[in-house]
Design a protein that fits this description.
Layout (H helix, E strand, L loop, with lengths): L1 H27 L10 E7 L2 E5 L5 E9 L2 E5 L5 E12 L2 E5 L5 E9 L2 E5 L10 E9 L2 E5 L4
Parallel strand pairs: 1-3, 2-4, 3-5, 4-6, 5-9, 6-10, 7-9, 8-10
Length: 148
């Protein structure tokens, strides 16, 4: 009986620790930015965030999904030169939609998760470029185009 109780208490402690760290993360790094913001910082810890950007000069920012989900739609945004977005997912998911005419350069990595960029290469060599970097740790990051 003692080993079962020890395993149960250890599991309960781990769950409480993860929940507490998520609450601390949410307080330490509050989300900033709305549909008109040129820079965003979105943090989804044990919840979900959905943003449809209409920024006039989107410069990028950061996205973190910690046991949560983030959906960002950039199809109505105008991209600024040198736009850079850092995307991290820990046991969560991030979905980013971009318009067909954008070029997306990615250096995202995945560890026991997935990071996928499905954006067709634009025909225009001077197409606006969004640079992505980040990590999917036991989570997923998907970037793609989709009709409105």
């Amino acid at each position: 009986m003692r080993p079962i109780r020890a395993v149960g208490l250890t599991a309960l402690g781990a769950v409480a620790g993860v929940a507490a760290s998520g609450a601390l993360l949410k307080r330490a790094l509050p989300s900033r930015g709305d549909e008109e913001s040129d820079e965003i910082r979105l943090v989804a810890a044990f919840d979900g965030i959905e943003l449809r950007s209409r920024a006039k000069a989107f410069r990028g920012g950061s996205i973190l999904a910690w046991f949560g989900g983030v959906a960002v739609d950039l199809r109505e945004a105008t991209l600024a030169p040198d736009a850079h977005l850092t995307v991290n997912s820990v046991f969560g998911g991030v979905a980013i939609r971009v318009p067909v005419g954008w070029r997306v350069e990615s250096s995202m990595r995945a560890l026991s998760g997935g990071a996928e960029v499905k954006v067709p290469e634009p025909e225009d060599p001077a197409a606006p470029t969004l640079t992505l970097e980040g990590l999917a740790l036991f989570g997923g990051i998907a970037v793609g185009t989709k009709k409105s």
